[in-house]
Amino acid sequence: MTEKLVVIGNGMAPGRMLEHLLEQAPGRFQVTIFNAEPRVNYDRIMLSPVLSGEKEYEQIIIHGDGWYIRNGITLYKGHRITEIDRAAKTVTSEHGVTESYDKLVIATGSMPLIIPVPGHNLAGVLSYRDLDDVNAMLLAAQSRSKAVVIGGGLLGLEAAAGLQARGMDVTVVHLMPTLMERQLDPAAGYLLQKAVEARGIKVLTKANTKAILGDKRVEGVELADGRVIPATLVVMAAGIRPNAALAKEAGLSTGRGIVVDAGMRTSDADILALGECVEVNGHVYGLVAPLYEMARVAAAQLAGDAEARFVHNDTPTKLKVTGIDVYSVGDFADGDDREEIVLRDASAGVYKRLVLKDNRIIGTVLFGETSDGAWFSDLKKKAADISEMRDTLIFGQAYQGGVPLDPMAAVAALPDDAEICGCNGVCKGKITGAIKSKGLTSLEDVRAHTKASSSCGSCTGLVEQLMSLTLGDAYQPASVQPMCGCTPLGHDDVRRLIRAKSLKTIPAVMQELEWKTSCGCAKCRPALNYYLVCDWPDVYADDYQSRFVNERVHANIQKDGTFSVVPRMWGGVTSAKELRSIADVVDKFKIPTVKVTGGQRIDMLGIKKEDLPAVWADLGKAGFVSGHAYAKGLRTVKTCVGTDWCRFGTQDSTGLGIRIEKFMWGSWTPAKVKMAVSGCPRNCAEATCKDVGVICVDSGYEIHFAGAAGLDIKGTEVLCQVRTEDEALEYIVALVQMYREQGRYLERIYKWAKRVGIDEIRRQIVEDAERRQGYFDRFVLSQKVAQVDPWAERASGKDRHEFRPLASVGFAQAAE
User: How far is residue 27 from each of residues 73, 107, 304, 454, measured CA to CA in Å?
Assistant: First the structure.
């Protein structure tokens, strides 16, 4: 019989618990989740990259709406639970929804510590715990003003780095003498402060906050020694405490958190708890690795394994600030019964310290060079006797045996039970086993199947080494290729930084991203122009000089210097009137060749450049607009006759093709986009080799994408099937907008899809309705400025200099 499982909270720990539970006991529970946040489950570890602009919210979603639907889970978003009635076995939300349970899981997380100084409740004082906090900080960062972060621990430093990346002048105020004093010894804390300050962030240690100044909103921070730091934003990052209030009100046993046993059960046998809200064996936890272990234990208990137990293990600490490598694990306090091995390299900014007791590692601190962290942690976890390698231990695994080993040999030497991914508790053997048994060939595949490297990402290098070791030459890691010689940055980094830094002109991009040349080159300028057109459609003015000649003159140049013109024919449909107009233009301008294209259009070839505006004017009078046959944009939507005429037609393919083309024409994309709509599976419009295609079937519309029929030949992938034309249009537009926002300039859809992953595209477009709507809305916004016929503009005189023939100047005239 199905039992009712209610989960209070929808963070990373309960999400992982449900993943395990669905695998171990499918169908056993009818699951209902109440989430205080108005959204789905996301990766909180990645909030710092969202703040800094390295990632967007959509990229850190763990379970989109589709996941809950597929698994039959009811999710109440924005429903904070206000009461647990243990006698009636019900929970009630603030919106009045009451749900009964057989088993209840409490995962209410933690609350930020707010220092109760005067002014702590002023507008502009924020905490740093969830996406709402990040969004508030992003809004504040638009001022490019001054920010103070109170707290120099992990969260505080990540917040400071993110705000600084967004253009704010940031000061970190920390009570203790060194940063991250709970995770680092004073020497590493000193190096960390230097590294943080080198990024342009001011650091004040031994600084006690006395008050936050301001009338209605923040104006500054006053320290106990009288110093005042001006600020329009103050971020409290002084720590967290378990959120156990709801459990306490329900009469459950609480201490520092909700008290649970090693099986994650509370004082009520039908109620489990896990995550940052719990206290287990006297410990509370704030790092993800132990939370995921709690999730594993709780799922096993719910599935009937009464022997599953949570065991405490020290968890490594890593700082998620780009360019600063920090690693620490264990106990590194001084003591008479302890020894230490220290390595310092001042010029390289490297510091390593191992704390030993009875010839066993009990603590590790690494700064600047952290690649051996997993090995040291494994030695600590196994309490390995290091006496025989003591002399070379500090140099790392590669140096054991007296001579440096190849890095691959060091990875190969790791035992199968060596932990590679601390966040998710994934060992070497699980990764290599999955690679071999499932035929995994990419980092994304390994993340999807093992979870390794899918959280904070600090173990990515080790995972890639394991892939190279296991696959040999078959593994080709994606390396970042610079856009051009003007910058070391790749396309993805440039796109990310344009958004993160709100760069809205080409000079601004080149200045802020430190271009090596004054004006860029023929490779980067067209790419930058496209990225700015895409990201700021209602602000950025298209830079005429940053386009290739075909896009400047809105026609295709031919080998003899003449041009070809292709009028747009919606869905490939034309009329006698239109054909007569084309014939008149051909005769009037003595156009030598007229040809029907493979995209169901008419191409007029051999037009002189100076005649183009007049040709366009005559075509415009007949109702034609540019077919954009020259453009990195939507070129054609090819159709068959569908139900209008065909005996086999299942839907109005011609009508849908015309509708799509009229909705999407004029949009710029990373590379050309060709579409087709076939009225039945016989596929007369050849939709299964297009960038985007539709196959009409009796039950609706099958949407395809990522095909190719040029230098590469590739059949399409099926995105999904929908029932109505409206849905088909919505999904296609959202897909193209996702490609517009993520594609690299000149990268066709099929190459983008291979790089991003077909499953990821389906997840964002098919499974996540909210994200799909966002893509659709942004496309509609861009079309408000994009759907302007360039032929009509040039026919009326715009850019007329482009179409004037060069004057012939003799030597005498030149001399004058």
Answer: 11, 22, 14, 27
Residue in the block written with tokens 């966002």: 774
CA distance 764 to 778: 15
Determine what percent of the chain falls in helix, strand and coil, rounding each to the nearest 5.
35, 25, 40
Structure tokens at 536: 């700021």
Coil, helix or strand for 412? helix
**CA dist 666 to 534, 536, 585, 634, 663, Å?**
12, 16, 23, 7, 9
Q: Where are the beta strands (DSSP E) in 36-78?
A: 41-42, 61-63, 74-77
Write out the DSSP string of 585-618: HHHHTT--EEEE-TTS-EEEEEE-GGGHHHHHHH
Looking at residue 107, its pLDDT comes to 97
Q: How far apart are CA 231 and CA 204, in angstroms?
A: 15
Q: pLDDT band at 475, cuts 50/70/90?
A: confident
Q: What is the tens place of the pLDDT at every residue in 587-644?
A: 999 999 999 999 999 999 999 999 999 999 999 999 999 888 888 999 999 999 999 8
β-strands 146-150, 81-85 pairing: unpaired
For 300, the token pair is 């096993």
pLDDT band at 478 (very low <50, low <70, confident <90, very high): low
Cα gap 786→631, rounded to integer Å: 13
In angstroms, the CA 379 to CA 446 distance is 25
**Which residue matches tokens 């804390």?**
189
Torsion of CA 668, 674, 677, 680, to 10 degrees: -150
Q: With 70 as the cut, is the pLDDT of residue 322 above it? A: no
Q: Which long-range contacts (CB under 8 A, 24 or more apart) does 280-286 make?
A: 280/310, 280/312, 281/310, 281/312, 283/312, 284/242, 284/256, 284/257, 285/315, 286/110, 286/240
Whether residue 328 contacts residue 184, with contact meaning beta carbons closer than 8 Å, is answered with yes
Backbone angles phi, psi at 41, to 5 degrees: -75, 130
Cβ–Cβ under 8 Å, residues 220 and 110: no
Task: Give the DSSP H or E segment for 294.
Answer: helix 288-302
How wide is the angle at C-alpha 48 spanned by C-alphas 172 and 456, nearest 5°?
125
